[in-house]
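Long-time lurker, first post. I've been practising inverse folding by hand and with some scripts of my own, and I keep getting stuck on stretches where the structure tokens seem ambiguous. Below is the full token string for one chain I'm working on. Before anyone asks, I'm not after the true native sequence, just a reasonable design that respects the backbone. If someone could post their per-position residues I'd love to compare against what I wrote down in my notebook.
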């Protein structure tokens, strides 16, 4: 009995198993660091599928040998994967070109707003610590202005992110009277919307110059969302993202941009 011919698509699946192993390994490392973002979970799922296809390549080949239609569907599925990966690569180039450095704003800000990130176990994550370090340096450069820390409590968090952020700033000698905690938001858009009344209580209007401190990969989208939320004079300072999580953070941002366009978070309007 003649041996079934191995299709090029099956060899592709075998090579994809190597990619899958790398993706799963990277995701497991991040899970061990208590990073459970979309940018970590999606590569884990995609890598698991690639590994499964590689381990079952004989069954894949038998399935493909049944009919030309199946081989066509197989090629079409991989073509869609290739198109998606190309769109991710294009987005990464776009994001790299628009990373906002932690440069001083054109005018002295009336307030500083720090956007929250993960606080696993009630502690500041490495990504959030970089934001807080940058915010602290800017707060010292502009003494007296309020510093809003914005972030609610996630489903896996023991305390609101703003509480953890406020404690970190106080522990690093920022005056308590300057710290304003917004503890209810669960999204970037919510950060800006729910911080508006707190800023206004401190005499800072949405038209006042606001310095937003976030991560470098997030600065562009945060600026767009701020304008959508009614802030007309906002600038963003981007803290560097730790290298070990950078790829995953950018991938998460890819989906966040897509969701933002779908939800209309980037248009200019007052709320």
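-- Answer (accepted) --
I ran through it position by position. Result:
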């Amino acid at each position: 009995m003649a041996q079934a011919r191995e299709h090029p698509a099956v060899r592709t699946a075998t090579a994809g198993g190597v990619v899958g192993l790398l993706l799963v390994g990277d995701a497991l490392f991040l899970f061990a660091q208590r990073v459970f973002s979309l940018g970590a979970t999606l590569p884990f799922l995609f890598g698991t599928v690639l590994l499964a296809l590689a381990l079952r390549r004989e069954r894949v080949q038998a399935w493909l040998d049944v009919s030309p239609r199946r081989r066509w569907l197989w090629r079409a599925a991989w073509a869609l994967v290739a198109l998606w990966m190309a769109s991710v690569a294009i987005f990464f180039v776009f994001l790299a070109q628009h990373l906002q450095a932690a440069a001083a704003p054109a005018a002295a800000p009336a307030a500083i707003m720090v956007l929250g990130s993960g606080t696993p176990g009630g502690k500041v994550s490495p990504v959030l610590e970089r934001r807080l370090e940058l915010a602290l340096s800017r707060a010292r450069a502009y003494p007296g202005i309020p510093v809003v820390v914005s972030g609610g409590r996630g489903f896996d968090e023991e305390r609101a992110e703003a509480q953890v952020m406020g404690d970190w700033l106080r522990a690093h000698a920022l005056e308590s009277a300057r710290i304003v905690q917004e503890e209810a938001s669960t999204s970037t858009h919510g950060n800006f919307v729910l911080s508006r009344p707190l800023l206004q209580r401190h005499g800072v209007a949405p038209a006042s110059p606001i310095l937003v401190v976030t991560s470098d990969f997030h600065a562009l989208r945060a600026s767009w969302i701020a304008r959508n939320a009614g802030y007309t004079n906002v600038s963003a300072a981007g803290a560097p993202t730790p290298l070990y999580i950078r790829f995953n953070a950018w991938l998460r941002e890819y989906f966040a941009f897509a969701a933002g366009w779908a939800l209309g978070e980037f248009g200019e309007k007052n709320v």
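A couple of notes from the structure itself: The chain is about 55% helix and 10% strand. Residues 68-97 form the longest helix (30 residues). Happy to go over any region you disagree with.
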